[in-house]
Amino acid sequence: MLNYFRHLVALHFVVCLVAHCTGHVRFVCPRPQSPRSDVFQQLPNHPLDGQCGLGGSVQFDSEYKEVSPGPFTIRFEETVVHNDSPFSISLHDFDNSEKSCLLLDHIPHNNAAGVRKQCHISRYPIGHCSESTYYITINIPNITCKKCYLQIKSVHVPNSNQDTRCGNNSSCQVYYSCANIRIRPTASGHGKGLESCQKYSFNLLGIWPYRPQKYFKAELKSDKSASPVAGAAVYDEVLNQIHADLPRKVFQTGLMKIGLSTVRNSNTTPPEYDVIYSSPVSPHDYDQSRINIKFRDVPDNVSRMLMDGELYLNIITTTTEYIGVLDMKHEEFEKGIYAPMHTQYSKGGWLSSPEFLGVKAVYPAATYPTGPCSPPSRHYISHLHLRDDLTDTVGALAMTVIDDRLHIFIKLTDHKQPIASIQLISSQLSGLLPLNLPVSKLKNGYLFTVIQASKWIKEIGTLMFLKKVEIRTVDNKLLMDGLIEEGIYSFMGDIDEVHGLGIFQITKGRFLQYTVIMEKTGCEKQSVLLEGPESIIISNITNQLTSKYDDYLLEGYIKELSSDTILNLWLGKISLIMKCEENKTFTEVVSKLTRPGKWYCADIENEHCSVVELTPGGFGEVEGEAFVQPSGLAAFVLDRAKVLQYSIFIGGVIKRGLLEATLTDEDHLILTITLHRSSAHDHVFEARGQLPQSSPDLIKNLLLGRLNLHVTNPGQVTKPLFGALPVITQSECIDSKTLVVGEDKEKWSYDSSPFDTIHALVGDKLVFIYTANTTVHKFKTREDYETCNLQNAVKLEGSTRDNITWTVTYILTPGSNYFGSDNQCDLSPPFKVSVSVIQTDKIVSESRDDCTISLYQVWRQQNLNRYDGPNVVGSAIGGLIAGIIILFLFHLVERRHQNKHERTNSGFQRF
Ligand SMILES: *[C@@H]1O[C@H](CO)[C@@H](O)[C@H](O)[C@H]1NC(C)=O
Ligand SMILES: *[C@@H]1O[C@H](CO)[C@@H](O)[C@H](O)[C@H]1NC(C)=O
Ligand SMILES: *[C@@H]1O[C@H](CO)[C@@H](O)[C@H](O)[C@H]1NC(C)=O
Ligand SMILES: *[C@@H]1O[C@H](CO)[C@@H](O)[C@H](O)[C@H]1NC(C)=O
Ligand SMILES: *[C@@H]1O[C@H](CO)[C@@H](O)[C@H](O)[C@H]1NC(C)=O
Ligand SMILES: *[C@@H]1O[C@H](CO)[C@@H](O)[C@H](O)[C@H]1NC(C)=O
Ligand SMILES: *[C@@H]1O[C@H](CO)[C@@H](O)[C@H](O)[C@H]1NC(C)=O
Ligand SMILES: *[C@@H]1O[C@H](CO)[C@@H](O)[C@H](O)[C@H]1NC(C)=O
What we know:
This protein is mainly beta. Helices cover 10% and strands 40% of the residues. The two termini are 64 Å apart. One 2-acetamido-2-deoxy-beta-D-glucopyranose binds next to loops.
């Protein structure tokens, strides 16, 4: 151990002596293999020891992060800042060291970074270098990779000389940090490995401004002119295009065509050429001094000829023809070759130059926060309606707020009317001007943009924040509008190519409201589903599919969210999935829902919260340890039949042993739950279950928020995880229900047995669907049920239309009801079911109107009620109070419309 430290110190001493302490870098999230940021390579004397400079000491299994394919935000930090040192990120596999995939190259340095004292170079805690932290979103390829790692390089280019480049084999210093990850692919990525992410351009999420570009020049000669003309071309591998460039001076007039050609016969004089591409020249190809022509979709064989110096540029004018071979002059941002570079970053560590923000952004995805390593961000949604039809959804907006910027997605169904402006509007009292979105970016009814909006973001979480969307036509007529709410969303497809947008909200009745707008697919048989982990279907919403102009629209509510669904929603593990089956082949578009914001649980008074965070000792996460502490989340639901459902998730468990949870009130142990190791995810423990017949005492304690949950590892001395349960109540929005016995399985059949006890309410209908040789017998007593004694049982006669399938519908009565099938009742497992039925006063014949009010509107209303106005404007307060009273009355009379649209409440426009 001592030796190890001596070695470290010595090493560090050498580094600083030799190279005046250059750019040290390490991952923060995903967690690095080691907290060391001083691992470097400098050829020929200081090669890297092993792939990550840590020799063979890396143990994959002790720490790695599980990641999903697609955009993924990573966090890294510099412990010693070295200006102008670019970064590069690649993906490697421990089991296949031959190959690697370049994910993002030539990431410019933040020269405004600084290092604070708390920022240690080689030991934990990590993540304290706040002024030299970087966040950037990369794209995880859709492959199977069980033992992968991400590698970041910081290349120190000596900037003594402008032309210095650092290549593969140069003597430049390169610092390394690696972070272990396991990629869990979607269905289409199964069985694929690193060989399918070799093409760098496919690993990008747009037009990366620092992508490789090859520059060519051509001496264009003609019979008619003695001196050659200098032509040029750029080959862009990512865009897959050749961009020809000519001086305008020379070709002021008479220019007709520009082409690319190859030599057919070089023996003739002049040689004969084959024109393989040609493009007429139009006025918009001219700028002030140059003429630009783009040749798109260049096939591989043509780009290869370009590299080999076999491609010619030819120019046809009205009087003559010029030709010259394209010779490579130089390359920029070439793979593996680095030059000094830097750009502008935000204080939070995100790229913030015009390439990434605003109208001119070419790679907005780099700053989109997503995945477990991104800092917390808040998500907003809006249902867009036509001006004169409040019930008719014609578009959706989704927005993520982070740092000082907004990421905005808009999907409109009816984009035939020309749109002149899209504005986000704050409350009038805020004094903030409307925020204009770049309409020019709206393509095919779809817009994605990132804008800096610090002034507006300052008001986040208050009534002054952005409140509504207004979309206007050229003559400034309001075309569509919608209220902005904090909510949940998911975009379908890739971030740079979205095929649909789903927006979600939780309502006062604890329903999950959904609105999905997606492109028509032309798919023979498709399903749209909400799925939890392991492809468990939460809701099949395919039946809600309706045509809306050129798109599909799906709208509705998912009622009775189970504790499992709520837990997975809060863990960010629910996906919106479009499945398409065609000729027995399946394709799917999978998109994750954003996590619900903290406000659902923290900011709304008198509204129920179902989730509790479990942290060591009940305090926040302990940072900076060699291993991340386990932490967890649990959800509790008191369902319609007063069954207490629970679902518990504990992640980051590296120590051995089983976990045990206890639910206690102030003095009693209520329940002991043994957690089981997740079969699908490592380091994860789970439990789910239910506590039927919750006693009045338990229900009272739930209502008073007196319960605590502790999770311990009895075999290990570790700090228990702890969380105090929030107030848990039953929903006020309960409908009567038809319960089909064995619905998820094979209905009422032996194959479905054993049956779980069914908990139901008086008035619910119980339905048995069965085939020949099966009966529905209702037992008289519990004893008869237990012993399968059919003597006193009543046979319920079913109805049939086809003599194949029979149906019995039974209206449930209070107490316990017992059913079995005659000749199979006492088989193993037994073919019988018990149904426990309770009386409730909560049944509402139809869904009550206020069940569908969004919780955001509840929050807004509470804040409006509390708001006592800016002190300076006395008269405004009078107006405000009157407004609140009007609003309140209004709320009683016209809840539904108040909820649907704020404009019905025009007497109260200031907010
Ligand atoms: C998964 O991989 C397939 C092809 O390999 C790709 O078309 C699809 O978009 C990928 N899905 C995700 C979520 O990355
Ligand atoms: C760097 O090395 C790799 C393999 O070691 C090679 O494929 C690549 O072409 C090299 N790049 C340069 C610029 O030499
Ligand atoms: C790298 O440089 C060393 C010494 O300068 C040389 O021996 C070696 O062949 C070079 N490797 C490559 C791949 O160019
Ligand atoms: C490139 O390949 C395509 C087919 O693969 C062929 O049709 C075309 O002629 C080739 N182009 C050249 C310039 O060789
Ligand atoms: C979803 O529902 C539709 C229509 O009811 C059905 O055709 C489809 O098979 C269902 N999909 C799944 C995956 O269950
Ligand atoms: C599906 O099969 C039919 C005939 O079997 C064929 O006409 C059709 O083109 C196929 N569709 C696709 C997408 O392969
Ligand atoms: C019903 O039972 C009879 C005799 O026990 C048997 O022959 C027949 O195959 C059974 N039918 C079904 C559908 O199970
Ligand atoms: C069902 O069976 C009954 C009695 O055996 C018979 O009268 C009736 O026609 C049958 N119905 C069908 C649809 O086969």
